[in-house]
Amino acid sequence: MSKSKGNFYTLKDVVLREGKPVYAKVSDNEVDAPPFLTAAGASFPSRLPDGAQDQLAALALKTAAALGFTTGGLHIEMMWTARGPQIIEVNGRPGGEHVIGLNARTWGVDLVEEQFLAAAGVPGKPFLPAEPLGTFEVGYLLPEAPGEYAELKGLDEARSLPGFVEFVHMQ
What we know:
Layout: E1 7-17, E2 20-31, E3 39-44, H1 50-66, E4 72-81, E5 84-91, H2 99-107, H3 111-119, E6 136-139, H4 155-159
Antiparallel strand pairs: 1-2, 1-4, 2-3, 3-6, 4-5
């Protein structure tokens, strides 16, 4: 496997009905240092220019077609490299962790509902606002070494900041 250096993006997520996209949005993923590329954060919506987002969406849809995927949802991880956008992985499911909620908060789209509607053969597509309903930044606390933390300080202060939405403790 080649070690690609580039910015990491995800088309989080794609919903298709009969081979046609009804929802496809790009977000930015922040990763830690190679070679691990562990998720360190995300931005909803993407900060990329529309033209670059269109290129990522086109590659994702071309990949879905090449895999014979016509109906339902996909979560596609991509990286922008010196050779342009490259597929990292394709998953036949919505994104994990916070992705479903952030799509709903950013675009007003319930990915689970859309995937059920697509699977049931219900025609239509979700309403998308002209502009995002909000912008969201996600950050992960990544330890420098294995172990357990004894205390997390500053959470009350963080919660009092304007724009703070939520803190999720994942184990």
